[in-house]
Specification:
The protein has twelve helices and 14 strands. By secondary structure, the chain is an alpha/beta fold. InterPro entries: Gfo/Idh/MocA-like_OxRdtase_N, Gfo/Idh/MocA_Oxidoreductase, GFO_IDH_MocA-like_dom, NAD(P)-bd_dom_sf.
């Protein structure tokens, strides 16, 4: 059977999803909506879909089995709830929101509806990530170092903290999610966010342009994740794991494992967006939700850590993710 798919938000990210779905058997793009109606109609005409004048019209149309939400994180009011109410399966791009209480409320509605749900944490679908996770399964991870360095995106809303959540919430969330996926849950985060140059680019910016987060995992491992949108001369993203008997890094699409018996490097050629979208379509078609490697609940858990880091940077105190209260070490 064909899985009929709709899109709310049809910017560049959405169109990339649409292009990968063109290559997936049983996937059919049937409906799109964007506040920019000119763009919505152009995408509809290009890919053989129908353009709608509102998200409510699209969701209630009866023309879709599944929905991709590709709007910015501040523009998601009521969408997930409406999809769940209509029994429409859901893939929500990351981050899934900016307020954890609201996201948890949506999560409960989604879980109660019984729909299949996924999120935009596409790096989990890399073959080298699966190999890294398997290799580290019986290892004691002691130190984790992660980074996301690059130039500033061109969207105006990205520089506004209240609309993007900042770089950790909006971009470096991918690296943080890999840490959760591979090394386990976060116990405590302590962050510093600063504005060093961003006001020269946008005088009204409220987002930071350099930030670093120290953390402790539930396993006892410690680590750091550093972000900057000022690195216009270099783009890097990766995660490194250290233990007494191994070193493992995922640097972009390159995996390196070094221990007493090997020093191997492998470059992935997997299109992780294609693999993510194929898994979502197959999960719906075959009713196998376990094919999805990062569902809405997982995305909410990752969001909770990034928002806790924002709370820490604002308060100057360590925070326990998901609780929103200062972490106090016992004597």
């Amino acid at each position: 059977m064909a899985v009929r798919i709709g899109f709310i938000g049809v910017g560049g990210m959405a169109e990339h999803h649409i292009q990968t779905l063109q290559r997936i058997e049983h996937a059919e793009i049937t409906a799109v909506f964007d506040l920019n109606q000119t763009r919505s109609k152009e995408i509809a005409e290009t890919y053989g879909a129908k353009s709608y004048e509102s998200s409510d019209q699209l969701i209630a149309s009866g023309e879709i089995d599944a929905l991709f939400i590709c709007t910015p994180p501040f523009a998601r009011s009521g969408i997930e709830e409406a999809a769940a109410h209509h029994g429409i399966h859901l893939l929500a791009e990351k981050p899934v929101g900016l307020h954890i209480d609201e996201v948890r409320r949506k999560e409960r509605i989604i879980l109660e509806s019984g729909i299949i749900h996924s999120s935009g944490y596409c790096l989990r679908y890399l073959d080298i990530v699966a190999k890294a996770k398997a290799y580290l399964a019986d290892k004691q991870i002691d130190l984790v170092l992660a980074y996301r360095l690059g130039d500033m995106p061109g969207m105006r809303w990205w520089t506004i903290m209240e609309q993007s959540g900042g770089q950790l919430v909006e971009q470096s969330t991918h690296q943080l999610d890999l840490i959760r996926y591979i090394a386990g849950e976060f116990k405590e985060v302590s962050a510093i966010h600063e504005q060093r140059y961003i006001h020269n680019i946008d005088p009204n910016a409220t987002a930071y342009d350099v930030g670093t987060v120290s953390f402790v995992l539930e396993s006892g491992a410690i680590g750091n994740i550093t972000s900057s949108c000022l690195a216009k001369y270099v783009g890097r993203s990766g995660v490194e794991f250290y233990g007494h008997d191994f070193y493992l890094s995922i640097d972009g699409a390159v995996l390196r494992i070094k221990d007493d018996h090997q020093d191997v490097t492998e470059t992935s050629e997997v299109d992780f967006y294609y693999e993510q979208n194929k898994a979502f379509v197959e999960a719906i078609r075959t009713n196998q939700p376990n094919l999805v490697l990062c569902d809405y609940s997982d995305a909410a858990d990752t969001l909770a850590v990034t928002l806790a880091a924002n709370d820490s940077a604002a308060s100057g105190k360590p925070i326990v993710p998901g609780r929103g209260i200062p972490f106090v070490k016992s004597n």
